[in-house]
Amino acid sequence: ILKDQILIFSTTWAECVNHVQLLLERFQRAGQTVNPIKCALEKSETCHLGHIISDKQVKPKVGKVQAVLECPQPHTKVQVQSTLGLTGYYQKFIPHYASIVAPLTDLTKK
Q1: What confidence tens digit (pLDDT) does each residue in 81-94 have?
Q2: Which of 10, 41, 42, 87 can pair with 15 through a Cys bridge, CB separation 3.0 to 4.6 Å?
Q3: Going by C-beta distance under 8 Å and a sequence separation of 6 or more, which residues neighbour residue 98?
Q4: CA distance 7 to 40
């Protein structure tokens, strides 16, 4: 069982305590343990899978945006596919993404 990077969102401290208790009970039933040193409670913002997540928004991590901005111009089909993979991960943050990358997507079909 992979149990790294578990996020629990709660709107109140009491709700958080309840959520954590339920999670710990499930781990216990599965015979799993949790290292309390690796736990972080009551965070208003966290970084998870290249995103910065808060109670107000989800946004891409600055370093990841920079990587997209600095991505070299692709010259081969494999490079185009790589570029689409890199940018596609953040497509929800790019308005009209499908229209923008349509010419590149067409290149991968040939």
Answers
A1: 999 998 998 899 99
A2: 10
A3: 91
A4: 10
Crossing angle for the helix pair 97-108 and 77-88, nearest 10 degrees?
150
Looking up tokens 């010259």 gives 75
Length of the chain: 110
- The two structure tokens encoding residue 92: 């929800």
Tracing tokens 């890199």 back to the chain, one arrives at: 86
Q: Radius of gyration over alpha carbons of the chain, in Å?
A: 20
41 with 20: CB under 8 angstroms?
yes
Name the β-bridge partners of 58: 53
Strand runs (DSSP E) across the chain, as ranges?
45-48, 51-54, 58-60
pLDDT digits (tens, 9 = 90+) for 35-74: 888 888 888 888 888 889 988 899 998 888 888 889 899 9
Q: Tell the residue number behind the tokens 């010419």, with chain if given.
A: 103
3-state secondary structure of 68: helix
- Which two tokens mark 56? 């107000």
